[in-house]
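User: My instructor asked us to take a sequence, write out its structure as tokens, and then describe one feature of it. I'm not sure where to start. Here is the sequence I was given:
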Amino acid sequence: MQKLIYILGASLGSIVVGYLFRLVTMNRGRIGEAQLLKASRAMKLSSFFVFQPLTYVATFWTMSLSDVPLLVFPVLGLTSVLLSGGVSLLVIRMLRIPPFRAASVFTAGMFTNVLTMGGLVGYGFFGEYGYLLAQLFTMFVAASYYLFGYPVSANIARETTPVLKVDVRLFKENPFLFFPIGSMVIGLLLNFSGIPRPDFMRTVVAIDVPLVAILLGAAIGLSLRFSRIVDYGREIGIVVLIKFVLLPALMIPLGLLAGLPGLADTTPFKMLIVLSMMPVAFNALVPPAIFGFDLDLANSAWIVTTASLAIIVPVLYLVLL
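Assistant: Let's start with the prediction itself. The structure tokens for your sequence are:
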């Protein structure tokens, strides 16, 4: 639990630091809005496409694939992404949300913080086994964000049809999108090769994980405008409904059908419940910065859903433990 408090404090604390820096510099007229947004964008890109790929290599290098029944977890993880993305697209169409906002609703609805937050909650509840399950759950999740979530969000914002079309030009214009996927492939190849992971990689991960959280938190703080949250009441309500009501209602029955309650003293089933009730991912804030749609909406949805953990985590603790 101390580790959970430490990581949450580091990530949320960095948001406060970034936001205070924003207030001080803008009040004194030293830095303008455009410069802050440029710095925020650079920090997000370096986090996801430079530092985090190192963690992917290390994680996939040592990921255990020996427990065959638990291999259903990567499938459930991918299913959760497709379901939340599909529901988000359906709601966007039904409510006719303008493209500039709709793209942010889509990324906020689809991208879920299942490893950073979900993994930490799982570790606090169930130890290393809980974190392992979170890793298995996210095996295909990150790749689906870059290969599917990013292109579709760009299509929504640009009103490109069909919206599900993946244009290879997007990757040619933004070749850094290949970095996370490539790092996962490298990690898996090293895993299958049988080459032992060097001990120094443990230190790399120990530094890299909090560094990414701090950079992302500060980047959010630099671009955060609390006054805009009230402008997005309907859209944030939609995201909250998807994250904390619809997705658990869809995933929990799938876990029952997969027989998770009968595995390892029901811990896999309990972890599925935890992972299906996590907030908007940090990653949901990157496409708006890259493709130029509503960053304030994405930031607001992230803040509201992450703050909701103050209620959700104690409830999960009372119910599951």
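For the description part of your assignment, you could build on this observation: Residues 36 and 222 are 6 Å apart (CA to CA). Try explaining in your own words what that tells you about the chain.
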